[in-house]
């Protein structure tokens, strides 16, 4: 049996801050209403040049720097996201290319706000069963692009960002001790985001205030009820599997949906709210990115010490929910500034190599007499006459 230890962590937040007062200029709301109902003061919004993949890359590069690892040591990249730019290539493949992680398999994982814990569990299983040695698990979102900015019920809640961890195989007991994943698809109508160019399935059409648009629909009260019910049971399940009790836990890093949800969950668990780490006031709800983003901030604030037991708990669309228990027992190596600069140079070289491979493919196509990918794309975009096969 091998163990999967978290040895690196990194996060990235776009620079642009959108405050509650800014939103109050767009829809009828106020800082006071938003803060008292959600605990959110401001969130970050991605620049037009930024994508889910570039946010994910920045977080991953920082996590690799903390782990002092070369991207070629990573054998699995999982990106949990609900806001990919493409169905394929996956965001994970884009990150693989940006990192130059030449030995990695890569895929995206869709489990909404629980996605990071689901991804952590998948990567842990791959390491424990010795199919990979090291893995990157990333949560990344550009939620601002899937919001209806006229819907005050949802646009006040979300923000953009990314967080990542590096998991490393070890013989030393610790790391991910347990994970419990759950779902209830009958609640798909409570919270959903239709795929681009697809109308919602009939089962999801019951609750779709945004009609057919590709924006988030939510029944806030039902989400609240669901979240407060599952947080406590999910945490206790994962602790039971790890052979621990709530008293053994140093810190819980929950999905950052909303302060009131966490207050209620803390009461149900009969623990102080201080046991939950919260940064939702400054970043809003960043869906799959929220747990690794909060983890990084908890580390920066010195909230974690070696041998602490910590719990991640995610809950969201699907409906899905998941908890994982982690023993925090690896002290990261010191990485010099020079090493960090070298790592950045590596990524520039990875971009150069990727461009060369693209050019190679294009020239191979031209010399081989077949249309280039650009010409194929132009051809595919030409209007077509729908001909009957027999005509
Ligand atoms: N500003 C001012 N008024 C508002 C706003 C707003 N932004 N949004 C709704 N209102 C109004 C409503 O129109 C309604 O007015 P009415 O009484 O005149 O009809 C009134 O406020 C109450 O609306 P509710 O939706 O019932 O408000 P509620 O008290 O339930 O608070 C909230 C809404 C904050 C969304 C709450 O339901 C909640 O916290 N739910 C959890 C949802 C959540 O956190 N989702 C995150 C995404 S999912 C996830 O990450 C798991």
Folded structure, characterized:
- With 391 residues, this protein is of the alpha/beta class.
- The protein folds into 2 domains: 3-335, Peroxisomal Thiolase, Chain A, domain 1 (3-Layer(aba) Sandwich), CATH 3.40.47.10; 338-380.
- Helix content is 36%, strand content 22%.
- The protein has 11 helices and 13 strands.
- It has helices at residues 20-24, 31-38, 52-67, 91-99, 115-128, 220-242, 259-269, 280-283, 290-300, 337-367, 373-381; strands at 3-12, 16-19, 42-45, 76-80, 105-109, 134-142, 160-170, 175-183, 191-192, 217-218, 249-254, 308-316, 320-328.
- The strands form 4 sheets. The protein has a 5-stranded mixed beta sheet with strand order 1-7-6-4-5, sandwiched between helices.
- α4 (91-99) links the parallel β4 (76-80) and β5.
- The protein is globular and about 70 Å long.
- The N and C termini lie far apart (64 Å).
- The site of acetyl coenzyme *A has 24 residues, from α2, α6, α7 and β12.
